[in-house]
Amino acid sequence: MNTVNAISQQPSASDLTGSLFRRSSERNNAGVLADIYRDDTNIAIWKRELSDELLSSVDNFISTNTMKQTVSAVTAKDTHEVLVNTFGEEQINKVLSDDIAQLVDMFCCLFDLKRAGLRLTIMDSAMCPKFHVDKIPCRLVSTYHCIATEWLPNHLIDRTKLGAGSLGERDEESGLLHNVNDIQRLNRGDVALIKGERWEGNEGAGLVHRSPPILESANRLLLTLDFIDF
Q: Which of 133, 139, 151 is nearest to 187 (CA)?
């Protein structure tokens, strides 16, 4: 398989001033997720297309479910049971729950976890609208419906403009980024591992990312998996 690099150019010495260079690793096979263990990588992206059957299952879940969010501790073996107990058999179609269970299995195997913290959220507005970093080791994110997570290459930003450093200004105006074309975006169906600030050796280089703005009347379905029991 050919590797697709979201950051195609090598940074110059001036790019590296005051920042740690981190790259993305992207391929259309799940094996790319292991690249998150590379010291120079802070996002690994499995580019994938969702099947028509899975898309139909997602549409049914969004249209019939009244619970906007669930947070659960799951294993690969009990994911389906936990989701059915939470949402009901009619709402959480087996096609969708099987896909989520596969991602839980991959996540736990990759990081040698007994369980994962699962969050499945239907949202009609951006959960985290400003660029930020997560104070975690690593998180899996995948958007099943609507537009997906936006992120920035580390060597192209001024991290002092994160949080309070933005002085309340919009990301595009605060000086955090120099060009809006530097904003990268995952696609629907992509599975990404986002390295945070608490990954050993990644302090000061956690992936800068945000929730995208959602168009009126649209619903985004986002899955995240986090470390627990590690």
A: 151
